[in-house]
Design a protein that fits this description.
Blueprint (H helix, E strand, L loop, with lengths): L15 H15 L5 H7 L5 H26 L5 H15 L6 H12 L4 H6 L5 H16 L2 H6 L7 H15 L9 H24 L3 H29 L15
Helix pairs in contact: 1-11, 3-4, 3-5, 3-7, 3-11, 4-5, 5-10, 7-11, 9-10
Length: 252
């Protein structure tokens, strides 16, 4: 049985290539494109109310992203890093006449029949959804900057799931169209730009083996956040179908 190493203080740093490979391997093992709920979603196997539950709950994550980015920026003294990072907030919240990703997500929930004030209130979201996304915000607030940045690196794996989602949902659900799927199409260009910068930052600034391993663990943590949200959705709206008190119930 291999010994599990938890103290890396005296270990030699990984090479840049091996460090990057360790980060990318997390996606191979743990990214939420492997979750059963996503297979059902992209394969057209969900009823409209189940897709609606996903969109309603996922809004909580979309809304949390610019909050975690603002919290991150409040800790950064490097002006150039702030100048680079701020566009992430603009991508989600919008800037000027550009409505941003949250507005595009609300177009999706509009199409699924939800009033916007209900969606933005988060009242109908699952408790586990809210706990998971707030755990992510808190992680970014509390961790060293390079580890906080590393937690965003699930964006490395996002374009493939967005492409799969666009094709699968357009083919299988008559209640979505190109306009409704605009959020995912925009992320095909935004996610690679963001992840390339964040990856370079992490590779440059995690200099000890201990820091490198903490960054890899941060990517695992973020995958866990995404996975936990889908576990909750599957449990509540697919099987066994146990919707907790206060969460949205189809038909109500």
């Amino acid at each position: 049985m291999n010994q599990i190493v938890t103290d890396w203080r005296d270990a030699a740093p990984l090479s840049r290539a091996d460090f990057e490979a360790a980060i990318r391997n997390v996606g191979v093992e743990r990214y939420h494109d492997k979750h059963e709920f996503h297979k059902l979603l992209h394969g057209g196997k969900l009823a409209k109310h189940q897709v609606a539950a996903w969109a309603l709950n996922r809004y909580c994550y979309q809304e949390a992203v610019p909050r975690k980015d603002a919290a991150f920026m409040s800790r950064v003294h490097d002006r150039e890093l702030r100048r680079e990072w701020i566009h992430r907030i603009h991508d989600h919240d919008g800037l000027g006449e550009e409505g941003g990703g949250i507005e595009r997500w609300l177009v999706l929930t509009d199409a699924l029949g939800f009033p916007r004030d209900y969606v933005t209130s988060r009242r109908g979201a699952l408790p586990a959804t809210k706990f998971a996304v707030e755990a992510y915000v808190r992680f970014v607030v509390e961790q060293p900057l390079v580890i906080a940045v590393a937690s965003s690196l699930t964006e490395l794996f996002a374009p493939s799931i967005h492409r799969e989602r666009i094709v699968g949902m357009l083919e299988n659900y008559n209640f979505v169209d190109d306009h409704v799927m605009a959020y995912f199409k925009r992320r095909l260009s935004q996610a690679p730009r963001d992840s390339e910068f964040a990856l370079a930052y992490v590779l440059d600034n995690a200099r000890t083996r201990e820091e490198q391993e903490a960054c890899v663990a941060a990517v695992r943590f973020k995958c866990d956040v995404l996975w936990a949200q889908l576990d909750a959705l599957h449990h509540a709206y697919v099987t066994p179908g146990l919707i907790p008190p206060g969460a949205w119930r189809p038909g109500e």
